Each structure stands twice: as structure tokens, then as C-alpha cells.
Amino acid sequence: MDTPKKPAPIVNDWARPFWEAARDNRLILQQCVDCGKHIFYPRIACPHCFSDNVEWVPASGKGTVYSYTVVETNAPSAFMNDVPYVVAVVKLDEGVQMLSNIVGCDPAEVRCDMPVEVTFEKLDDEFTLPKFRPS
Amino acid sequence: MSKLRGKVAIVGIGEVPTGRFPEKAAIYHAMESAKLAIKDAGINKDHIDFVMPTAALYSPQFNTELVTCRVAEELGLKNAKTNCQIFAGGSSGSCFLKLGGSIIETGVADYVLCVHADRLGTGVTAQGGIDLFSTAGISAEWEVPFGQHYSTIAALTTTRYQYETGCTDEQMAAVCVSNRKWAELNPNARFRKPLTIEEVMESKMLSTPLRAKQSNMLFDGGSAFILTSAERARDITDRPVYLLGEGSRVTHFVFSQEPDITRFGWRDAAKDAFGEAGLTPKDIDVAEIYDSYPVYQVIGMEELGFCERGEAGELHMRGDTWPGGKLPTTTNGGMLSQGHTGAGGGVALLVEAARQLMGKAGERQVPGARFAVETGTGGTYMDAQVSILGTEIP
Ligand SMILES: [Zn+2]
What we know:
Chain A is mainly beta.
């Protein structure tokens, strides 16, 4: 069976700066000017205090693995050739969580609370995905 | 907390066997389940004035038929005044109960027919099912591009839960064994052969630490129930199943945004539900806990207060949750053994709770069951819905 193309993010308009930065290998987050909290994923207003006054700021790119799994079988069609691959929820130092893949190590070495840092993997000309590797 | 305590009751239930039925259209499962529920209630079909179907994830054509009154017309429900689809994924059953209940309590309707059917066993191929559940309810921007699907979601929950509690792989496998023991006694269940911990542990690894026999399987099926006021219920049956309490929380949409993937919103939802009912977990005779994967049954039981955190695995190992045990749990075999029919997995658990309280559970009847709890959760475990039912109003 032919492996279908990897699914590209279906981008919401207000999140476009995130993906444009990722294409330049930069991880940025929204931050609320009024309550100071970092925001991920990008929102149309601060989900904490509902302020419209949110701005884009660079992220440290550092965090820890909140949880992870190594996909060995029954992967979605587009990911069949990638097994084993690691899906993880990463907690960034800024206090936000994101789903990503852990790369740059043996999948068997990944652990909960392991420190990781961002790295970028090009998907196609339009999209680069932020991924994480042990730090 | 709602004002529905003791005001509405389930008076009839219907269900078709779960399985693969290539020759049967999804609408058949809906109609047959609804017909059985009406006959079980012993009411005239023309008393039904509100028809409330779920949506079917698989078939857009079938959804069109449901919203355009096909069930009402096929069954000849001559006094149907409203036909309105309700959908909250695996929470649909719990939502039926609170929405149908509210409609009755406010006098909008007298008899509400709640019905689910879907065709996930024959409507999609095996790989098609994997692909469907790597997109359905999963964020197309923030998770689909990273290869997320429902197995990885369950695996992420299990990894962190085991890390925090020390629950073992064997204890997690014991949930599947416990649910299978119930399914062995359930003629509508898809998997009825005995299962051992070893068989679970030797089954194919999907996404670590989740194995094939710890995953629900998708099938065709349907179930239905009839809601009416407590007053009318007492006129038509000796054993109305009253809604005593309900509580719920919505905690995320995108799975990775859940602040605590080992707890979700169950504790607060349960506090509201038990508070309204005036009961505690000690009063519960039967627990029907949403079990699309074993970890969710374990977390549900702990957060509802049936045991301390980290202990639920052991309850399944030592038999408390089995037939004859102290806390009969997920007594239809759940999605792990009766089979997952989409939104119907939750509806089937609710129907099973009512069946046990009505004393109609046959070989798997929990003797003298008076109070039951049922839980439902939809999407990527986005919400925690807890309903408490009973044959009396305490
Ligand atoms: Zn704010």
C-alpha cells in the first residue's frame, strides 16, 4: 500500500505567525500583556483573563516530557513508515503543553520528566514542525 | 448541580447485539433498539412525543435520515412533536439523560425516545478505522501532524498514570480480564471467550505500553431507552430507574491541553453527582465506568472515590470488580468486550446501568442492585460525565 502524504497542519488564521516562525526554525508563543501568562496553542484572546492584548514572544524551547508513547504498530497510514516513533506531551518551561515527537534518541530512552529542547523538522516547503530532543 | 433529582426515570431499554453485520443497515440497529425499548416500557408507541437520536460518526447519509425523522416514520410514532439529534461522542448517553430529563421536567415532552446506532464494524476497514480515529476529534492543527490517534492518547494517559502511581502492566491487563468475565455472561457482547492476563500481556504492542487486547474494537450496534417523568414512571412500572444525580466538567478539546491527563474532571463531576443524589460511593451497587481503554476505567473508579488513587488496578486483580465481587464494575463487558459502537459505547453503559437496576440483567444480574453510577466521556476524554441512578429516591 502506498503511504499517503503526511498531514500538514490545517492552520487557523490567528496561528499563522507560529507556523511562519517555525519555518525559520524559531519557536514562538503568545503571551498576555495584561496577566503575563504564556499561551499555547494560539488564541484569539487570552484564555486566562480574556484580554485581547496578547503578543508574540520567543520561547525558551526548553521543557520536559510530561508523557510519551512509542508507536510500534497500527499507525495511521501516513505514519506507517515512521514506526517506531515517539509521540509526547511536552511541558515547556513557560508553563504551556504541546504535543510533539521526541527525536534524536533511541525511542526506548525516553522517560517521563526527561528534559528536552526544541529542534525543527521540515515537512514541506510551507511547514516545519517543532519537535523535541533530549537536552 | 441540577434540579432533576428523582424527577425523571428510565422506563424502558432496548439493545441489539454488538458485532459485524454487513447485511444490516445502521438504521436497522436504531429502529430495532427503539422498538425493543418501547416494548420493554410497555407503553403505546404513540405516547412518544420527543425523538432524540445521536449522530453516527460513520455515516453522513444515516445522520441525514436520523435528523429527518426516519425513525419516527418507520416506527409510526404518530404523536412525535420534536425530532432532534444530540451528539457528544462517548458522552452522548449522559447528555441524553440530562437533556431528555430537563425536557420532561419542564413539561416540553412527556416521553423521550433516546436512540443510538452506528456501523463502525462494517462501515470502515481496519486501517480505515485507524485513519478515522487519527482525525476524529483530534486537532488538525496541533496533533494530527504528529501522528496522534486514539491508541497514542490512551498510551500517553497510561504511561503518565503508571509513572505517578506505580500501577503495573499486569494490573492494567486485569481490567480487560474483569470486563471479559462480565461479557461472558452478556449475550449482546462481541467477545465472550475467557481472557487471561497472560493473553493480554502477549498481545501485539500498539503504542507502548498499550497492547492490542487493551484496545477497544469497533463494531456495529445500537441501544435505546425511554425517559419519562417519575410520576408517570410509577404508573407504568414497579421499578422505575430514577435519575438521582448528575455532575460534569469539560476540561479540554485538544488532548495535550489537558492539565492532568491522569485525573481529568472526574473528581469534581462526581462530587456534584453524589452530592445531588445524597449518596456516597459506598452506597453504589453497580459501577458502569467508561472503559474505551483500561486506564480510563481505573482513573474513573479512583476519581469517583471507589478506592484510593493507584488502587483500582489491584481491585481488578483480586476480583472485587468481577461477577460476584464487592464492586461489580462495567457489567456489560464495556467497550473492551461488548464492543465499541462509537457514541454508543456510553449509551450501552447507561442502558446496562438501567438493566441492572430493573433486574433484567439475566445471568449477570447483580442481586438486589438499588443504586448505580454511570460515566461517559467524549472526544479525546474532553469531558467527565457522571450520572447516578436508583430504584428509589433516598
Ligand atoms: Zn491574560
